[in-house]
Amino acid sequence: MLPVARKEGIHVEQLPEEVIAYDVARHKAHCLSLTTASIWRKCDGQSTAEDIAARLQKEGIKADEEMVWMVLHRLSKIELLQERISLPEDAILSSRRELMKKAAAVGGVLFLLTATISAPTPAQASSGGHHHHHKEHRFEWGNGQQPGIPTNRNA
Amino acid sequence: MASFTSGTVEYALFREAPGDHLDSDLTFRAFGLPIGIRTNYAPAVSHLLDRLPPGSKATSARPERLYRLHVTGHDHEPDHGFANDENEIAKILDKNAGQVMLARTTDLAEALEIFESDLQLQVAEMCSDKVFVHAGVVGWKGKAIVVPGTSSAGKTTLIASLVRGGATYYSDEYALFDDEGRVHPYARPLRIRTVDGNSRIMCQPEMLGGSRGVEPLPLGFIVVTQYRSGAEWQPYRLSPGKALLALLRNTVSIRRRPHSCLSTLCNVVTSAVAVQSVRGEADEIAPLLLREMQEDPREVFVREETVQFDTTLGGNYVTGCAQGRNSR
After folding, report:
1. Which burial class, exposed, middle or buried, applies to A16 when counting CB atoms under 10 A from its CB (0-12, 13-18, 19+)?
2. Which residues of A are less than 8 Å from B307 in CB distance?
3. How far, in whole angstroms, is CA B187 from its chain's centroid?
4. In this complex, how many residue pairs, one in chain A and one in chain B, have their CB atoms less than 8 Å apart?
5. A27: which residues sit within 8 A by CB, 6+ positions away?
6. Sign of the alpha-carbon torsion through B134, B264, B221, B280
7. Residues of A in contact with B110 (CB under 8 A)
8. Of A31, A61, B104, B118, which residue is 20 to 30 A from B251 by alpha carbon distance?
9. Given this model, what pLDDT does residue A145 score?
10. How far apart (Å, rounded) are the C-alpha atoms in residues A154 and B6?
11. Do A127 and B134 make contact, defined as CB atoms within 8 angstroms?
C-alpha cells in the first residue's frame, strides 16, 4: 500500500523552518520539520518510499529510502496518513550508529523531528484547580437515578 | 437526596446558556460576551461584581450566559421565585436542562472563586476578536514577556517577581492576542497563593511596587517554565514551532476556532524569542530574565534544543536536553 497524506480536516500553517499541521477532528497539533513535511506532501498514493527518497535527493536532501520509511512510520503513527502503513521488515536495517551518521549528513536528527500536543479543552487550558471542582459538580449527582442536586460539601 | 443542615448558609452557583430562561438582575458585557447575574441574596451582588473580568461594562443586551447564585439558610426572605427548599431547587434544575451547577458550598469565598474562574473561561472561549492564551504577561522595554502555563506551574509567582523587578503588569491569567499579534492586558489583581498553598489572596500590582500596562504590546519573549524546588535555570531556545505548541497547549478556544487561533499565533511566534527551562525561586530568575531581555535575547539565549532518537520501529524521536551554553 502506498502512503496517502490526509488533507481533509488538517489545517496547515507554514513557519520559516517548520510546518504546523492541526488535526481538527482529533484536536492535535503537530510540528513537523521541513523535511518531514516535504515527505508528507509527497505521499500522493502513487509514490513508494524509494520514489519519495529519489525526489528528495533531486531537491538536494540526502535522505535515503530507510530514512523516508522512518518518517512515514512516524506520520502514520500521528495519523497524518489516510491509512496506517506497516513498516516492511527490511525497511530499516541500519544500526543506530549508522542512522545517526545518515541523519548528520542531512543536517542532524532535527530534520526528522515531529512534536505533537493534544489541543486542550477550555477547562484544561484554564487555571489549575477550579475546573476540577466543575467536573465534580457536573457529574456527581445527588441520587444517581435522575438529575437532582449535586452535593459536594467537602469541596 | 441530601438535605441542608438546619441553620447553615449554603451557596449554590448555576450557569445557564441560551435556550434557558435568561432573566437577569444585572447584565454586563465582558470582551463582547453579554453575561447576566441573578441572585436571591442582595448582599452577594457586590461580591459578584468584584469578580467580573477587567473592563466589564453594564449593557441592556440579552445575556448569552446567566449565572445564578442561590443562597439558602440566610436571614433574608427568598425572592425572585427561589425558595429555601431542596425540592424547589430540584424543580429549577429539571426546568432548565441546560443548566450547570458549578458549586454547592457553605463557603462564599469558594463560590465566588468558582464564579470568577468559570466566567472568565466562558469569556475566553467565546471572545471572537482576541485569542486567549492561559499565561502571565508583563511589559518590559516596549515588549511583552509571556509565560504560558497553568497556575500549578508557578506562573503568578514569577509574574509577581517580574513586577517587583520593574516590569509592567499585564496579567497573571491570560495573554490576549489580537489579529496583529499584539498582547493586550487582562489586568485583574494578581492571585497569589498563601504560604500553605490552599488559598489565594488578591494583590494589586501597585502593592508590589509596580504599575499596570494599558497599551497593547508586540510579543518579545515567551518563557516556558515550571517551578521545581532547587532547580537550576538553564534556558534553551525553542524553535518557533515548539513555541507555538507551548502556546497552543494553553489556548482556550483552540478547539472552537482552530483556524483563527493558529493564524494569529503563527504570526507572533516568528518574531519572538522563546526559551524553556525548569526554574527554582522566582525572585532569583526574574532579575536575570529582565536583564537578558534588556539586551538582544537572540544573542543571549544561544543554546538550542537538541534531540536524541530511538531507532526502534516505534520511531519515537525523543526531545533531549539542551546542549551548549548561554553566552554568559
Report:
1. exposed
2. 109-110, 113
3. 11
4. 171
5. A118, A119, B254, B255
6. positive
7. 155
8. B104
9. 28
10. 17
11. yes
| Sole residue written with cell 447553615 | B8
For the stretch B15-55, pLDDT in tens is 987 655 667 778 999 999 999 998 988 888 999 999 999 99
Q: What is the pLDDT of residues B278-297, one digit of tens each?
A: 999 999 999 999 988 877 66
Q: Could you tell me the three cell numbers for B149?
A: 502555563
Q: Residues A82, A4: contact at Cβ < 8 Å?
A: yes
B 204-243 residues inside an 8 A Cβ radius of A: 239-242
Q: Per-residue pLDDT averaged across B78-100, rounded?
A: 56
Which stretches of chain A are assigned E, i.e. beta strand? 10-14, 18-23, 28-33, 114-118
Asked if B319 has any chain A CB less than 8 Å from its own CB, the reply is yes
Interface of B with A in 54-113 (CB under 8 A): 86, 89-90, 93-94, 97, 100-106, 110, 113
Between CA B138 and CA B141 the distance in angstroms is 10
**Cβ A127–B250 below 8 Å, yes or no?**
no
- Greatest Cα pair distance in chain A: 68
Q: What is the pLDDT of residues B163-179, one digit of tens each?
A: 999 999 999 999 999 99
* pLDDT 10s digits, B126-161: 898 999 999 999 999 999 999 999 767 788 999 999
The contacts of residue B39 (CB under 8 Å, 6+ apart) are B25, B45, B48, B68, B69, B70, B71, B80
Q: Is the pTM above the cut of 0.95? A: no
Give me B220's grid cell: 518579545
Please judge whether A149 and B151 are an interchain contact, meaning their C-beta atoms are less than 8 angstroms apart: no
What is the H or E stretch that residue A65 is in?
helix A65-77
Q: Helix, strand or coil for residue A50?
A: helix
Q: Measured between beta carbons, which residues in chain A are less than 8 angstroms from residue B94?
A: 147
Interface touch A155/B110, C-beta < 8 Å: yes
Average pLDDT value over all residues in chain B: 82
Q: Output the furthest CA–CA distance in chain B (Å, rounded).
A: 72
